[in-house]
Each structure stands twice: as C-alpha cells, then as structure tokens.
Amino acid sequence: MGTMQAVILAAGEGKRLRPLTRSRPKALIPVGNTPVLDYVIHALQTCGIRDIIVVVGYRKEQVIRHLSALDAGVKVVVQEKPLGTAHALLQAKEFIRDRFLVLPGDNYINSASIARIMNRRNAVLVKEHPYPSNFGVVTTKKGYVTQIIEKPAMSPSFTISTGIFSLDQDFFSSLRENDMTDAIGAFLESGKKLRAVPADDWQDAVYPWDLLQMNQYLIRSVQPEKAGEVSEHCTIQGPVRIGKGTRISPMTSIFGPVVIGPECEIGPCACIMPYSSIGQRVRIDPFTLVENSILMDDCEVGSHSRIRDSVIGEGSRLADHVTTVAASHLMEIQGEQIRGRFGAILGEEVRAGPFTVLEGAIVGNNVNIRGGSRIQSTMAYGDGGLVV
User: Fold this and answer.
1) Which residue among 110, 156, 352, 365 has its CA within the 20 to 30 Å range from the CA of 30?
2) What tens digit of pLDDT does each residue of 59-88 get?
C-alpha cells in the first residue's frame, strides 16, 4: 500500500458568504488571521499526510499564489467550470494511486478527526449539528450510512456529513454524478458500504456571521506572543498574539483571546476585547473598542468607534464614531429566508462616514456610506455606489 493521499476541494466560491467571497474563494477567508484552507493542510500534515492535491477553480490565481507562498509542496489541479464537488474530485483522478481522503478546503478540521478516518476503508466523517438542513443529512444503520440527503427542508436526523471521506481508487469507477452527495448516493446504491465515523472537531461557516463563532472557537487556544512594540502603559490579559512591527500605544487595553497581525497601529486608549482577530496593517484609532470581530488586512477604524460582532472586509475604512449594533433580521440569501444575529458584515473597500450606525447590516464591496446614516439589514447590499 502506498502512502495515503489527500484531495482538498478548494474550487468553490461560497455564494452564501457573499459579499466576503466576491473577491476571494471561501477557502481563503481568514479566521483567527489564518485562511481556513491552511488549517486543513496543517491537520493533514500533522497526521503525516504529505501527498496533498488541491483542486482550485473560482479565483484560482489567488489560491495558487497562496499555496506557493505556503511552501507546503502541494499539487494543484484546476476545475475549469464550477460543475460540482464530485466533478472537482474527478480532476484529481489521474494522480490518485490507491486510498485517499477527500476534504473541503473551506471547513475547519483538526488532526484528531483525520486520525479517526484515515485508516478506515470507505468512510465518512459525521457530526451532530443543531441546524442540519444547511448540510447533507446522514441516516445510518448499525454504523453504516443508509443515505445522505442534501439540504432537506425537513431533516430526518441531526447527523450531518462533514464532506470528508476516506475512499478507494475504485470510487472513481462509480463516479457518474457531478455532485459529491449524488455520487455517494450512487456508490451506496451499487451495494458498496460507507462507514459513519464521528468527527472529533469540525467547523463550517455557511453564512458570514458564522465566521464569528468559528473565530471564537479557533482563537481560544492562541499561543501568546508579543513580537511588536507594546507600550509599558498597556494592560494585556489572557492569551494575546501580537505580530511583528505592530505598535500598541499607551493606555490601550487588550483582553485575550486576541490575535493581532503584523504592522498594525493600535491606540492610544483603545480597547480590544476578547475574540477579536485583527489582520495585518490595520489601524485602530484612539478611544475605539473592538470586540468579537474579524478585521481583515488594511482596515482602518476611526476614533471613538465601537465595533462589535462584526466582520470588516479588507481595506475598509470606517471614520470616527462608527458603531455596530448586533441585531437579528430576516434576510434572503441565495433564495433562502435566514435569520442571523450580528453587528455588520462589510465587503472590501467599504467607506463609512462619521457617526454611522450599522445595525445587523450587510454591505457589499466598494460601497460608500454617508456619515450620520443608520443602516439596518441588507439595505446596502450590492457593489459600488453611494448609500445614504
């Protein structure tokens, strides 16, 4: 038997995560300042799996560039058209020699989960989930899968497929479908067996606000490090990681778990509360509070602002006295009525004038919000243009 191989499917867009995925694939969205794809690669390497194939498609240049900078020695294959997950897997067929794992590149998985499945023939990692209808729901009998139903309106169980499979090369011979759930269905109908193995830990973000929960989870175990310049008149408590070249000004308080990337400017008199992930080259002005939020690279937040429960896209600039308020609105996303609770989800290069209030708002890329506006729900969805 050869060494175990792994195929990571990172070709999809992640439409339900828009606007955050308009300019990057879901697998590259940073959580805890690390793209989700990197957690998957790291978990595989921890289990000794080095022969990794990544299938790319949507915005493939970005993924290829990212992977080459990682120095992980992965092989890249391209899915030219977005025809589904099984079709993406098919692109890797010629490189598969024996047994292999299939993993989504846009879900977090830990090495303990991979260890549970890697030595099983024909198995799927499953997990209990409170909202199973967003996923492929699994029904089992005596530990074996009887069927996987994709996003059912009425779910027969709380057990879902993580989309992580351990398969044999002969799986390809029964591969007629473009979608992985259908392909597995056909595989079962042909009389093959698929064992259901409970995952140790797995996280997915279906909607943008799910990233906040995932972020909370992933930075809980952050390794404290202070690589930047931290004024001695600062309060730092709990696990906090501060990147190289970052300056923390006097009278600033940081309460971990918090991750701050390199080359940031924070304070003075700023307050960074738990579960905040701040990317690189971010500027947070005096008297501003950030809590339970993801600020991507090159953001700026003006003074006297309150950013809570929010995801702020790359290069966005918020003026002074900008406030995000967590609210729950009913929204339509990809034709589904969904309720989510969050402060703001901003695409990239969003501009918000002073004294803006964002209350459960989703704002598209390159939108300019006039100062003094109060924005609720998805009023500011869309790309470009001015929103009053």
Assistant:
1) 352
2) 999 999 999 998 778 999 999 988 888 999
Residue 40's Cβ-count burial label (10 Å; 0-12, 13-18, 19+) is: buried
The closest alpha carbon to 235, from 258, 264, 212, 263, belongs to 258
Task: Break the chain into its structural domains and give their ranges.
Answer: 5-206, 218-387
Percent of the chain predicted with pLDDT > 90:
72
Q: Amino acid identity, residue 30?
A: P
Structure tokens at 36: 């989700």
Q: What does 146-212 look like in DSSP terms, one character per residue? A: EEEEES-SS-S-SEEEEEEEEE-GGGGGG---SSHHHHHHHHHHTT---EEEE-S-EEE-SSTTHHH
How much helix, strand and coil, in percent to the nearest 5, is found in the chain? 20, 35, 45
SS3 40: helix
Place of tokens 């940031």: 264
Q: What is the pLDDT of residues 156-202, one digit of tens each?
A: 889 999 999 999 988 888 787 788 888 888 888 888 899 999 999 99
297, pLDDT greater than 80: yes
Res. 346: pLDDT tops 90: yes
Vertex 90: Cα angle to 87 and 95 (nearest 5): 155
Question: Which residue in this structure is represented by tokens 């299939």?
Answer: 102
Q: What is the pLDDT of residue 155?
A: 83
Distance CA 114, CA 9 (A): 16
Residue 65: exposed, middle, or buried by beta-carbon count in 10 A (0-12, 13-18, 19+)? exposed
- For the full predicted model, state whether its pTM sits above 0.90: yes
Alpha helices for the chain (secondary structure H):
36-46, 60-70, 85-90, 111-117, 180-189, 210-219
Residue 375 · residue 353 · CB < 8 Å: no
| β pairing state of 34-35 and 30-31 | antiparallel
Residue 179 in tokens? 């979608």
Q: What is the pLDDT of residue 343?
A: 96
Distances (CA, A) of 333 to 17, 18, 208, 365: 9, 9, 11, 16
Maximum distance among all alpha carbons in the chain?
68
Q: Which CATH number is 5-206's, of 3.10.310.10, 3.40.50.300, 3.20.20.30, 3.90.550.10?
A: 3.90.550.10
